[in-house]
Amino acid sequence: MRLNMDRFEQKFRSQLEEFKHAKSFGAAYYALLGLDRIRDEFSTLAVICEARNTMDVNDVFYKEETEFFDRVKPRYEALENEMNEALLESPYQKEFEIHIGTEPFRMAALHKESFHPEIMEELKQENELSSKYSEMIANLKAETEEGVVPLSKIGTHMGSEDRNERAKYAAIWEKSFASAGEELDDLYDRLVKVRDRIAKKLGKKSFTEVGYCRMGRTSYTRKDIVSFREEVKKNLVPVAQRLFEKQRQALGVEVLYHYDEDIFAGGKKPQPTQNILEDFQKVYRELSPETRVYYEELLKCEFFDLSMRPGKIMGAYSNYVAQYHMPFIFETYHATTGALKTFAHETGHGFHSYTKRGEPFSFSGACSSDLAEIHSMGMEFLVWPYLKYVLPEEEIASYCYIHLKNALSFIPYGCAIDEFQETIYDHPNLSVEDRKDLWKQLEKQYMPWKKYDTDLFLSKGRAWQRQTHVYRWPFYYIDYVLAQVCALELHFMDQENHETAGNCYKKIVEYSGQKGFKETIESAGLPSPFQEAVIKELAQSVENSISWELMGAEIGEKTIFALKME
């Protein structure tokens, strides 16, 4: 049955009044606990609706339900804003901080800045427009010799050992996206305009400021991010460029095109297990007692969808279904190295929400995304010692090489996405062509190794249009970058001592939601990405981990890639 929003609002506000007028901390505690359960009701229905819609965007019932939630979410955000105001005005804030930490109050203050009843109509428009992106991409088709198929079906061909096949299917992929180019341009232009109106109504200079408030950035500022991006350009980009040049030499090709970047020496690519669900059970069984219990319950409850089919969106996520006390893992798994890494990533998110589900308040588990992405990216590396269960042993080294190199080269890509969005929202009247030119400039600064062999889509300054976050969740992407830095730090800690790294990871999971980004990682034992020389030292560590002399050896030899790992 569809949520009755009028009754929900009445119930929410009634409970909120009880919290506001509580005569003791005990009464306020239980009133807030009741309010939290009401919030769980809304989030559960919204998450289930999103899951069903992304499983098949052409399902009429859930398409209508998604449209319903797009309309009512601004009303829910208004209720959340009232709750934030009540939290900040509570005379029992110090007592609550003992139970839920200080971070929820700092987050509440920022979220309060990003909402006002005057922007309700714009929020509805923003929700509706961003939802259109997922529907549009899910319905893209690839024209192949076997016929017209969903775009997600050609992923394995794009990672083929045969370079001609890779090039062929990469061009098919580009042609598919290019067919939607004008529609993507128009959709983004409308999103930029409505977000600019939101910023102006909130009294902000640009939507960039709103984005920082929405993302709950309590530990660092826009100035810190600008300095961080410059550090990446100066000290990390040259190292990444050397990695790709060495790869080009090892592959023996004149030009390393974008479809070659995930290919190891000899032209091969690791072939992960087809039975990812069953085989990953062995990984999590050995990783820790906590991951074993978590994963076995995930399988028992069948809270996952990994299949490929028409209408299912391309992408992956983990969403916590509050009233069922379980995460839901979503992916289009096609047995590639990227899909394997993504599965570890999303189950890392799931591990965090599963671990925190016993907390009295959801506040303790609802951390900012810069921390949430450490849970997932960190897990990608923590499973390395157990890759024998999901990869042929002779292919583990090449998988690790690809993972490590791509982890480093992702950082400048993520910075380019962030600077692109910042520039766009600071200058909302840029034309479609200006935006494409901007991306071309940023690509040269952050990814000078990028080469394209067609003039279909990517070479035209459109690569950013394949990034869902640019359309749906602006300013999220730099959080991936910061988390990647932390995940790499965790990886090198793991190379020294697996137990120490595991304990560090568990502390990050524990503190997330109670403390801010910097507080959490430093309390767990990791240096902040904003500290001087961290980026330079990290890039050097990655470069030093690769034995270039061995890169050109045959795939069948176990010595092809020397990593500092047991």
Write out key terms for the chains shown.
566 residues, mainly alpha, three-stranded mixed sheet, two-stranded antiparallel sheet, 63% helix, 4% strand, disordered C terminus
Description:
By secondary structure, the chain is mainly alpha-helical. It has 22 helices and five strands. Strands 3-5-4 form a three-stranded mixed sheet. It has a two-stranded antiparallel ribbon with strand order 1-2. A hairpin with a 4-residue loop joins strand 4 and strand 5. It is globular and about 75 Å long. The relative contact order is 0.11. The model is unreliable at 548-566 (pLDDT under 50).
The helix/strand series, from N terminus to C terminus, equals HHHHHHEEHHHHHHHEEEHHHHHHHHH
What is the 3D shape?
Answer: globular
Q: pLDDT below 50 for ≥5 consecutive residues: which ranges?
A: 548-566
Strand residues, percent: under 5%
Rg over C-alpha atoms, rounded to the nearest angstrom: 23 Å
* Chain-averaged pLDDT: 92
| Helical percentage | 55-70%
Quote the distance from N terminus to C terminus: 54 Å
Q: In this structure, how is the largest beta sheet organized?
A: 3 strands, mixed
Structural class: mainly alpha
Q: State the total count of DSSP E strands.
A: 5
Number of alpha- plus pi-helical segments = 22
Numbering strands along the chain, what is their spatial order in the largest sheet? 3-5-4
Question: Outline of this structure?
Answer:
By secondary structure, this protein is mainly alpha-helical. The protein contains 22 helices and five strands.
Secondary structure layout:
Blueprint: H1 5-20, H2 25-55, H3 60-89, H4 93-100, H5 103-113, H6 120-138, E1 141-144, E2 147-150, H7 155-158, H8 163-178, H9 181-201, H10 207-214, H11 222-251, H12 276-287, H13 289-301, E3 304-305, E4 316-321, E5 326-331, H14 337-355, H15 369-382, H16 396-426, H17 432-446, H18 468-472, H19 477-496, H20 498-511, H21 517-524, H22 534-544
Parallel strand pairs: 3-5
Antiparallel strand pairs: 1-2, 4-5
Helix pairs in contact: 1-2, 1-3, 2-3, 3-5, 3-6, 5-10, 6-9, 9-10, 11-16, 11-22, 12-13, 13-14, 14-15, 15-19, 15-20, 16-17, 16-19, 19-20, 20-21
